[in-house]
Specification:
Blueprint (H helix, E strand, L loop, with lengths): L1 H26 L2 H6 L19 E12 L3 E7 L2 E2 L2 E5 L2 E11 L4 E7 L2 E9 L3 E9 L2 E7 L6 E19 L2 E2 L4 E8 L2 E15 L2 E11 L1 E8 L4 E7 L3 E10 L1
Antiparallel strand pairs: 1-5, 1-17, 2-3, 2-16, 4-7, 5-6, 6-9, 7-8, 8-10, 9-10, 10-13, 11-12, 12-15, 13-14, 14-17, 15-16
């Protein structure tokens, strides 16, 4: 199991690094440097984007939700237990609604639901269960280079995650226990974001986006033997996405 976890972490790091490199490259392009009063390198003139300004933008993305899970204060009927959790990745569609107050400042609301399998490690090795997450995220954004083809942005905000359809897993052989129920508590979290919109034609844009969520939940696992396991679980996912957007 540990080898599989390590391979997943390496894949996450590679994907995050690639998208972050693209975003940083856009953010420090010569046109963006001019936004901060720097002297841009000489480059061909780019026609202003007439659609970029106050108003709505809608994006549809495919996103990968990549948890970086860890469990603290794991107990069984109040006694400390040497165990941890592993939460699998999920790929889902996402809807994004953004309102621009000006060419540079905007607010973004992101909506998606993601299913995840939850496995235990150590004393709780095995399938603990699965659950769905609804983590709407509201972000304040600053968009650079609004008149250019490449439009990087940075954002920060909050999210409130709702856990639903929690299903119990099966037998945990190291503990000799069978899971009967799984409960995850809804919680608030913080979010940071970096991305870029690339003007394709008319009011259509290619979008790449990376977010980091700091998200925790109180988990309660009950078993058929009457043993109750509790833990503070940090999910802390990276969310990486690519899709299309339309300025309305």
């Amino acid at each position: 199991m540990h080898g599989g976890i390590m391979k997943r972490k390496c894949s996450k790091i590679s994907l995050i690094a690639a998208l972050t490199w693209l975003t940083v490259a856009f953010a420090f392009s010569p046109a963006v440097a001019a936004d901060f009063g720097g002297k841009p390198m000489e480059q061909p003139a780019i026609a202003a984007d007439p659609d970029w300004g106050p108003g709505w933008m809608v994006r549809l993305r495919g996103i990968g939700v990549l948890p970086d899970a860890d469990a603290d204060d794991v107990t069984a009927n109040g006694a400390p237990l040497g165990a941890n959790v592993d939460i699998d990745d999920s790929v889902v569609p996402e809807l994004d609604l953004t309102y621009f107050f000006s060419p540079n400042f905007a607010a973004e609301l992101i909506l998606a639901v993601t299913p995840h399998d939850i496995d235990g490690t150590g004393a709780l090795a095995g399938s603990i269960g699965d659950a769905w997450l609804l983590p709407p995220i509201l972000l304040a954004q600053y968009h650079f280079n609004p008149g250019g083809k490449f439009k990087p942005y940075l954002g920060a905000g909050v999210n409130y995650t709702v856990f639903f359809n929690e299903d119990a897993g099966g037998f945990l052989p190291n503990a000799g226990l069978t899971v009967s129920s799984l409960d995850l508590e809804n919680s608030f979290g913080w979010a940071l974001q970096a991305g870029a919109d690339i003007h394709l034609r008319d009011n259509m844009y290619l979008n790449i986006d990376v977010k980091k969520l700091w998200l925790e939940t109180d988990a309660t696992v009950r078993t058929t033997a009457g043993v109750t396991v509790r833990a503070d679980v940090e999910i802390n996912p990276w969310i990486v996405g690519i899709g299309l957007g339309w300025k309305l």
